[in-house]
Amino acid sequence: MSSSAGGLSRRRVPGGGSSTSSNSPTHSPRPSSPSSSSRNGVSGGGSSSNHNGVASHNHTHIGGGGGLNGTRHAGSAFEGGSKIAYDPRDLEDANEEMKAGGKMPRLTLMEEVLLLGLKDKQGYLSFWNDNISYALRGCILIELALRRRIALVKDPNRKRLPIPERLVEVLDDRQTGETILDETLKMMKAQEGDKMSVNMWIDLLSGETWNVMKIGYQLKQVRERLAKGLVDKGVLRTEKRNFLLFDMATHPVADVRTKESIITRLVTLLTSTTSSIPPNALDKEGVQCRVLRAICLVCTAYTASVMDNAFGRLGYEEREAAFQRCDEILAEFCVYPFGGGSASSSTPGRRRLAGAAGGSGGGGGVGAGVRIAMGGDGGGRESVLGLLNEVRKESVGSGGSGGGGGEEDLGFELVAGVLEVLSKLDSLI
């Protein structure tokens, strides 16, 4: 079956009519070789080789059983390449957002409170603020509860105890991506065998305990670590500042718009007089539990005594009315179910009185504190009721209280417990 001309031979491939040919008219045929038809490790019918020794796979048999017939090129443009590479963590993030009811905000609650307390140009907190360290530990528990990582233990007998004395459990120990949250979650998971209450966890994370066996639960350098996290996010920058005998790292504000947006949200929420919440009083659309997050920001910033920076643009009357609204909101959301408080209760009055006596630049003194705490005009009652309705919708929409005491319901209950602890902060420190 082979023909020869001038001592050269040309053999036909057994599978079909393709033969060794050249793409150039000046190409001279080569001597036959046993491996000439499989130079590139490809054998079988329907394949031909050009003069560069590259096999061209122009298959004429698709359904037969050849060597290349069953080859699948996953993730490529060849035949059978229908698979696409992906990162499984992307699907986990999507599932987490779906379960949480929305995407996570850019800044955590702790970072927003710290940012409110920082002086813009100096880059450090007030040396006379003793509340913020304790309040930041409460913010950590609130953030973990909103992210569906922790909640109160589902025990019918828990209602016999005050909310701060109810036990906390870990629902999901996956990492959140925030270092301080992950460290706290790891400690709480390790303590699952001996569950502790909301109040006890805040004390341990703050180092406020006489038990030497529990001193290891204290979170170290929370403010500095949060500030460095804000530097990584481009909100702050790091500078060295000389304080007489020593140098200290300070973190002035680099992204003024971010802090201004937080202040705008606070001021808009606290000066609104209608039952409908203004859109610019909340975070971006699609953020998980954005109404409850706005309320928690108001309450934690108020108890951390960092509101003076936010109210700098307000006049005296507006400033005092905003502080009164903080009292009303804290009174309604430090109990559970939400809305069971009273604007004239002793707890918020004590908060406002202490804030007026010890706050920097408050203006008005103790007399103003008593007047605001006890003599509210009720003009903002409608806006507080609007907040209550929206938070109830968020709970029902996430399958919480509408589902008969589910995880979301217990998470909201934990938030109320933390806010009750923080509402008594001045009597604790």
From TrEMBL:
This is GPP34-domain-containing protein. It comes from the Eukaryota.
